[in-house]
Every structure is written in structure tokens, then in C-alpha cells.
Amino acid sequence: MKSFEYTITDPVGIHARPAGLLVKEIKGFAGSTVTITKGEKTVNALKLMALMQMGIKQGDTVKVEVEGGDEEAVAAAIEAFFKANL
Amino acid sequence: MALDYRKCAEEIYSHLGGKENIISAAHCATRLRLVIADNSKIDTKALEDVEGVKGLFDSNGQLQLIIGTGTVNKVYDEFLAVTGLSAATKADVKAAAASRMPLWKKILKTPGDVFVPILPAIVASGLMMGLVEAIPKFWAAFGESDWYSFLDLVANTAFALLPVLVAVSAARVFGGNIFLGAVIGLMMVHPALINAWTVGNYAAGEIPTWHLFFFNVQQVGYQGHVIPVILAVLLMSTVEKWLHKKVPEMIDLFVTPLCTVLITAFVTFTIIGPTFSILENWVLAGAKWLASSLFGSLVMGAIYPWTVVMGLHHMYNVIEAGMIAQTGLNTWMPIASAANFAQFGACLAVALKVHNQKTKSVALPSALSASLGITEPAIFGINFRFMKPFLCGMAGGAVGALFGALFKLGAPVYGVTGIPAIPAVNNVPLYLVELLIAAGVAFALTWVIWKEDVPKAAPVEEIPEETAEPMPSVVRCAAGEMLQPTKGTVIAREDIPDDTFAMGILGDGVGVVPEEGIVYAPFDGTVTSVFDTKHAVTLEKNGMEVLIHIGVNTVNMNGEGFTAFVEDGQEVKAGQKLIAFDRDAIKAAGYNDTVVMLLTNSDDLEGVECGLK
Predict the structure, then answer these.
(1) Can you give the pLDDT at residue B96?
(2) DSSP for B348-394?
């Protein structure tokens, strides 16, 4: 398993649009299971609704975990996505 | 074939009317966001035809080119290289877009824009300062303790150096370099200058003066000032931006900051500063004259908060000290107390009446701080921002001051108002009555006159619980159907004026161009989540996961103009109202108000069919 932590810098956090883009990005890595954890809550990053319900805001630190597939590359790609968009 | 990013960027650039026409550039996940000086100079048609540009629209003062995820950042990098622009953050682009508003709007908006970001600092300091100064009035020994002097230092830091906070914030608002802004702010409170709070102790001839050309500049700092600082930073930002454009790039890095600081410093100390000194002297003379009569006290009680807004109030120490020297009684204090306590009353009314939690959380501590005589948080954070509470506070101040003058209230001390002044006054019961009158009038008026800016659709009684006529079905699948969520014209998902929705990234569905500001439940189901910003809601039924999103980019409105009638986990019936939204507010904020309803898991569902039957 590969994981990283990221603190959201986008002023509006993970709302509808970024959540959608994130899900789309992760759908591209079919071999891996990606989860996002904020505090006590962990969700499958493919579940758009669950992701939006986390109410992730600017300044929140989330933990992203990648399981299976090419973990190294997938985690790096997702981290790059976070940095570029969130 | 992969897109040639360089070529794409060059082509975009060639249709934008030259570098001068591009104010700033930023990108988000899918779009290149440009602020353009003159939209008539760009060739929209040609831009649409550039390979790699999937579409474009002009929204909110920004020209947005849809390029796509993963590609836009590469085109953006090339675009910066081609144009020689520096990378702008999204916030910069928004600021640049705001600068295209009409002048009068900008002027009204500026003090608020500058003050809102620094509110945490002044609320914390104001409250602490009020408390620290109040304790010794009841418990004299505390005033001698190390704790007092330590806490006093902590509490007054933000106020003693307020111009620095104001300057940094103003530089952000005006688009100047914030570090240069900090330099201007720091310069205005430089320790080598005489502190503006204590300058009253100097005789006119004793104040050291610089002779610069034909200007005689008194070496006095700007502690406690607000307006001169904002003006200085406005000048600085203007000069800086102008120089950036004119100075050749090779020497820009050292010429521009140097000249910016020098020019701003000179103009600040020679023109902006002295203009305000003259204004201050007029205010002082006027205030002295006014305070000497009953009618004058009434007027002074009313206009006092304006002098706080301008940062001139600290000069009153001079009047107060003069009064004590002449008569042993400071009759100015009751006027200031009434004015300050009235702002407390107005702010308290807002705190108790407002529904917006953010406003409430600022208003309560601000009110408390004002009751202790530190009114800046209440005035800048609440009353002046909403204006009506401020005006109600003026009325309360006037009545209170008149009462004080009528009964010749006064105190042999100066520098304190409100509750901390109680032990010092010559007639405690009457002073308490004065405070009650001032705060009571302001509170009552604010309570009656001020109304929170909530959506026009808000009066709950007037909106039927459910829609009068049943809505038609707009999305169907094997698991069930979804009814139209708001009255209006149904449009295809592809026609929603936002690429993320239009491209189906968030799922399949429809858009509705609304005719009224209410969103209804599309089926009998469960509300899974209402966004904090109340501009979107998610619902679930029988495996259908639905997102209803009101408007495009409305997340930026932070809930202003939206009212939610349901909460997370609530069961709803088809046609039950979920959210009211103010279409005028969305329009005023520059956004499109199309209501988007998407089946976010449409990929996993069978037989999804969108549109009216």
C-alpha cells in the first residue's frame, strides 16, 4: 500500500466540480483501490457522493491511500492531481 | 495525436489583442482563465477554432477557455512562456476581475474588502484590550502587576501596528506586492517617528520636521490610522503596476520596487499625511466647539463613530487632557461613551438577530469588545459593513450624548469609555442610565430597521410546502424517475454552461434555466447531504444518487443568497422544497443560475434516459 497526506489549499475545498474531476481521474486507474481519509472518516474515492459528503474544506488535511495495481505511479499521479487542482 | 501545447498557446495568444490586453492568467482543472482589458480586441471566433480549445465563455469578468484536464496546465505553462506573463493565482485573477467594477462600487467595497481578512486580528486584540484595561478599574493592584503589562502588550500589538495589517490587506485588495505593502505600513509606524498616540503631549514647535523640497513634513507616525494607509497602498499598487508595464523587463526587478517604495513614501509623507493632519485639526477644533453645547453634544454623539472609521478618534485625548487641565472634569468622555456604547447596542442586535453563523460569530465578541470601549471590531466587522446598524448606532450615540450633557456627566480621567469608565465617573447611576439609553436606542432601532440579506424567497410562509402543480419527469432509469427540480426551461446536459457538468464528468442529467428561486425534491427519498454553502444538495433513492447543483461557480458565494429547508439525513417527499435561492444575488455575483440535476452514478445504472418525455 502507498499513501500520502495533502492539505487542501483551494479556498472552496472538494465541492462538486473537483470531486467529479477527482473521481474521473481515479477511474483511470482500474487496478487500484483508492481511499481518502479525513479524521475518522474513510471513503472509497470512486464514490462521488461519499466524497462530497465528507465536506472537505480549505486547510483540511486528507490521507490518500492506494492499494493494488501500480501503487507507486498511481499515488504519484493522484498527488500531482491534488497539487494542481486542490 | 497529442496536442502541440506550444502551438496551441501561441495561437491563443495571437487572438487576444496583444500582451497589453491580457491583465492576468490562471488556470483551474479544465480551463485557462484570463482577465482581458478590452474584450472587443479579442477574436472570439478565431479562438474557438484554435486546436485544443474546446469552447470559451466570458463569465465574471474572466475569459475562460475550456481546454481540458491534464492539458490545460501544459498549455498554461506554454502560454506564460509565450506571453512573458507571471503566473497568477486564482485569487489574483478574481481580484483583477473585481477591478473592472464601476468606480463608486469599488470605493464602497474597498474598506470592507480590506478589513474583513484582518478581522480575526482586531477582534482578538480588541476583546483582550478591553478586558485588560477594565480589570485595573476594579482591582487597582492588577494594574501594577507584570501580568498587566505583559497582557497589555499582547493585546495592543494589533492596534499599535494596525497600519501594517491594513497595508498588507490593502495590497492584496489592490493587487500590489504584499511585501511592498508591508513596507509602506511599517514605514508609517516606524519607531523613529513620534507615535501618533502621544503626539498630543508635544507642543507644536517641538515636533521634529523634515524639509523636503518645499514640504515641511512632521515626523509623526500613523498609529491608529486607516484611511491614509489604504490611500498610500492604493497609490503604491498603482505606481507598481504602472512601472511593471513601462520598465524594461531586464531591470524591472530592481527598478520597480525601488521606485515604487520611494515614490509612495514621498507622496504619503508630504501629501496624503499632511492632508489628513489638516483634517484632524479641523475635526479637533470642530469637536471641541461642538462638545461645549447641548446641541453640539447631540451632533458629536452622532458623528463620533465616523471619526473612528477615519482613525481620527485617538486625537480626542488632546481635548480630554485639555478639559481636565482646565476644569478637572472630562465632559468629553460621556459623548465618546455614548457613541461607543451605542455601537455595542447595534452590534449586539445584529448578533442576536442574524442567522448567518459566520456573522454571528464575529458580532458577539465584537459587541463585547465594544462594551469595553474598543469599537473597531464592531464598527469595521459588523456595523459599518451593513451600514444600517452603524446609522442606528449614530442615533443611539446622539441621544446618549445629549443625556450626558444634560446632566453634566464627566470624569477626572481620560482614555476610557463604556464599562471600564464606570468607577471614574462623577455620577455612576446617571452614567449607567446614559449607557442604557445609548445602547437601548441603537439596539431597538437596529432590531427594527436592519434586516439580514436573505433570499427574497425567504419568507417561509409564502412558499407552499410543495409545488402547486406536479413537475414532469426529466430523468428516468431502471431504478426510478426524477422530476424536474425547479420551474423553468429544461435544457440538455450538454448545453449546461459549464464544461464539467456538460461533459458529464459528474454524471448524466439535465439542466433547468430557472424561473423562480426554489428547488424541489425530484422524488420521495433521503437527503444525503446539504453542502455547507447551501448551493447544492445530494439525495438518494433506490440506488439512485442525485446531485442538484444551483448555478455555476456559486460555491464562491459561500452560502449568501441560499437558504436550505432540509438537513442531512432527512426524508423528503417528491415536490418538497429543499433550497431557496436568490436569482438576483446569483446574477449580481456574476454567475449563471442554471439548476443542474445529475445522476452521479449514471454509469452504474441501467437504462438512463434524460430530458422531458
Answers:
(1) 59
(2) HHHHHH---HHHHHHHHHHHHHHHTT--HHHIIIIIHHHSHHHHHHH
- Flag if B500 and A15 touch (Cβ within 8 Å): no
Best B59, B503, B505 member to test A by mutation, with max A CBs in 10 Å, is B505
- Classified as helix, coil or strand, B517 is coil
pLDDT of residue B106: 59
Is residue B8 part of the annotated active site? The answer reads: no
User: What is the rounded CA–CA span in Å between residue B399 and residue B300?
Assistant: 10
B594 and chain A in contact, CB less than 8 A = no
Average pLDDT, chain B: 82
Which of B75, B92, B93, B538 best probes binding to A when mutated, by most A CB atoms within 10 angstroms?
A: B538
- For B29, the closest of A21, A53, A57 (CB atoms) is A21
Residues in chain A: 86
Q: Which three cell numbers stand for residue B304?
A: 463620533
pLDDT in tens, B250-279: 888 889 999 999 999 999 999 988 787 677
| CB–CB contact B29 A49 (8 Å) | no
Using alpha carbons, select from B226, B235, B190, B225 the residue that is nearest to residue B210.
B190
Which residues does B223 contact at the CB level (< 8 Å), separation at least 6?
Answer: B160, B161, B162, B163, B189, B195, B196, B197, B314
Residues of chain B found within 8 Å of residue A78, distances taken between Cβ atoms: none
Of the ranges B18-27, B212-221, B443-452, which one carries the lowest mean pLDDT score?
B18-27
Tell me the C-alpha distance between A49 and A32, whole Å: 19
Q: Which residue has the cell 427574497?
A: B456
Cβ(B370)–Cβ(B343) under 8 Å? Answer: yes
Q: Tell me the ipTM for this assembly.
A: 0.74
Q: Could you give the residue range(s) of every CATH 3.30.1360.60 domain in chain B?
A: 5-98
- pLDDT per residue as tens digits for the range B391-442: 999 999 999 999 998 988 888 777 778 887 887 788 889 999 999 999 999 9
Specify whether domain B461-610 bears CATH 2.70.70.10. Answer: yes
Question: pLDDT tens-digit profile of B470-516?
Answer: 788 888 888 888 888 988 888 888 888 887 788 777 788 899 988 88
Domains parsed from chain A with CATH numbers: 2-85 (3.30.1340.10)
Q: Does A49 sit within 8 Å of B69, measured CB to CB?
A: no
B549 annotated active-site: yes
Phi, psi of B411, rounded to the nearest 5 degrees: -150, 150
Amino acid at site B454: V
CB contact under 8 A, A48 and B545: yes
Does the domain formed by B5-98 have CATH 1.10.238.10?
A: no
Smallest Cα distance from A8 to chain B, Å: 14
Chain B residue numbers with beta carbons less than 8 Å from the beta carbon of A12 are: 533, 555-556
The SS3 assignment for B67 reads: coil
Number of inter-chain CB pairs under 8 A, A vs B: 67
